[in-house]
Write a structure and sequence with these properties.
By secondary structure, this protein is an alpha/beta fold. It is built from twelve helices and ten strands. The strands form two sheets. Strands 1, 2, 3, 4, 5, 8, 9 and 10 form an eight-stranded mixed β-sheet that branches. Strand 1, helix 5 and strand 2 form a beta-alpha-beta unit. The longest helix has 15 residues. The chain starts with a helix and ends with a strand.
Length: 267
């Protein structure tokens, strides 16, 4: 199935299943652009965990965060709905007894025990849940399974910056394409779901989840993707240091393709 056919699939889980047969998330996070996002995100998570931490990773993909955190935390439960991603995740995690992986989605959180996890990672759901009621439900379930004073970390794809990075890297005429609704000045939510910073903030606050920090997890990396790959190792490492020191600046939030909300759970 090609991308044009995938875009026509209305059911979120079915679209997700077909998307990751053609979209290589593992490869994306190994690029320098992806590494900026991954390193930034891991840096924030590692500030919060200990050897006693129990972590729930919802939408775990191929294990970009599950596997390194499995070296440091007590227990990780990883849910991944895409069968192709799940097979890789399952294979990679076999040597770590403290990681339990399931071919399940954010719709299955109601099966989990309340007040059990110290940290809940929602790094996939908001990329794929197109219905408001499903997004609200996953936030409520995350609150329920997370301990009081635990942490919920949520990722979003930043609507306005996607328009710019897509124009630069892929489609000069995206503003006149079928993906863009000019009268609304919005991308269609296919194959991913997009949010402006204030939309993401409002959604979280509406569920009485306390936002501690908002982070530009990949900053300018998508816009600079070609240049990052051409940089020397020294230049890239210096760029990464610069990014990590600027990714929490308010002005950077408008430039990043991916947003990371670090939240405190309050019952």
């Amino acid at each position: 199935m090609d991308m044009s056919e995938i875009l026509k699939i209305d059911n979120d889980l079915d679209r997700n299943e077909e998307l990751y047969k053609v979209f290589d998330e593992d490869k994306r996070l190994k690029s320098r652009t992806g590494l900026v996002e991954k390193i930034t995100t891991l840096t924030e998570i590692e500030k919060l965990i200990s050897s006693d931490s129990k972590i729930l990773d919802v939408g775990a993909g191929t294990g970009a965060y599950t596997l390194p955190l499995g070296q440091k935390a007590c227990e990780i439960v990883a849910l991944e709905p895409s069968s192709s991603n799940f097979k890789l995740l399952e294979s990679k995690s076999k040597t770590l007894a403290n990681i339990k992986v399931y071919n399940k989605s954010s719709y299955d959180l109601k099966d989990l025990e309340s007040d059990y996890f110290d940290i809940v990672l929602l790094f996939g759901p908001m990329y794929h849940l197109s219905r408001k009621e499903d997004r609200m439900d996953v936030l409520r379930q995350a609150k329920r399974v997370c301990k009081d004073d635990g942490y919920i970390l949520i990722s979003f794809i930043n609507h306005d910056t996607v328009l710019i990075s897509e124009t630069i890297n892929y489609n000069t005429n995206i503003f006149s394409s079928d993906s863009y609704i000019s009268e609304k000045q919005r991308l269609i939510d296919r194959p991913f779901v997009f949010f402006k910073v204030n939309e993401a903030r409002q959604m979280i606050e509406d569920e009485d989840i306390e936002i501690k920090e908002i982070i530009a997890s990949d900053g300018f990396a998508e816009v600079l993707s070609k240049q990052l790959e051409e940089m020397t190792e020294e230049s890239f490492n210096n760029y990464l240091d610069w990014h990590l020191n600027h990714c929490k600046c308010p002005e950077t939030l408008g430039a990043t393709n991916h947003l990371l909300f670090v939240c405190k759970n309050k019952k």
